Structure formats: structure tokens, C-alpha cells
Amino acid sequence: MADYDVQYDKDSGDWSAKRAGASRAAGRFDTQKAAHDAARGWAERSGGGEVRDHRKDNNQIRNTDTIGKKDPHPPKG
């Protein structure tokens, strides 16, 4: 299982998908959607995990996508 963070890089002006604990990004993309889709694919191929999308302006987590395992915090309703 692998967790990924999708974050905006102000210096380079692109979005990165970075595996949790890694020192370098696994990939760099023009859009947040492209970075999220790539991170989701990598998480699926590694047996599941979390993909956390961060906000562009303040880098706070805005969305978490659980892949291949039971969601620890499912939405109510």
C-alpha cells in the first residue's frame, strides 16, 4: 500500500504527486486532476492507499481519496 500527496509547487508552477515519505515527487503535471489521476493509478497498482489533494493557496488537505481498502472516514448520508 502507498499513500500519495498531490501538491502545488510555487517555484516550478506545476502540480506534483509525491509518495508519502519520499524526498522527490513521483511525477509532475500541469493540472491537479492529472496529478490526482496518476497518484490514484500508482496507489491502485501498489495494493491501495490514500491520495490526498492539497489546496493550491495554503497547502491544506482539501480532499482524501481512499483506494483499495475500507474508508476509515466514510461520508455520512
Describe the structure.
- This protein has one domain (4-67).
- Helices cover 18% and strands 36% of the residues.
- With 77 residues, the protein is α+β, with helices and mostly antiparallel strands.
- The longest helix is centred in the middle third of the chain and has 14 residues, at 32-45.
- The mean pLDDT is 92.
- It has a five-stranded mixed sheet with strand order 3-2-1-4-5, with helices on one face.
- Residues 18-28 have a biased composition (Low complexity).
- InterPro entries: DUF2188.
Short description:
The protein is α+β, with helices and mostly antiparallel strands. It has one helix at residues 32-45; strands at residues 4-9, 14-19, 27-29, 49-54, 61-67. The chain has a five-stranded mixed sheet with strand order 3-2-1-4-5, with helices on one face.
Topology:
Layout: E1 4-9, E2 14-19, E3 27-29, H1 32-45, E4 49-54, E5 61-67
Parallel strand pairs: 1-4
Antiparallel strand pairs: 1-2, 2-3, 4-5
Strand content: 35-45%
- Tell me roughly what share of residues is in helical segments: 10-25%
Number of strands: 5
The spatial strand order of the largest sheet comes to: 3-2-1-4-5
Low-confidence stretches: none
Tell me the count of domains.
Answer: 1
Mean pLDDT: 92
Biggest sheet overview:
5 strands, mixed
The first-to-last residue Cα distance is 28 Å
Order of helices and strands: EEEHEE
Radius of gyration: 12 Å
Write down the overall geometry: globular
Biased composition (Low complexity): 18-28
Biased composition (Basic and acidic residues): 7-17, 30-43, 50-59, 67-77
Region (Disordered): 1-77
Protein name: DUF2188 domain-containing protein
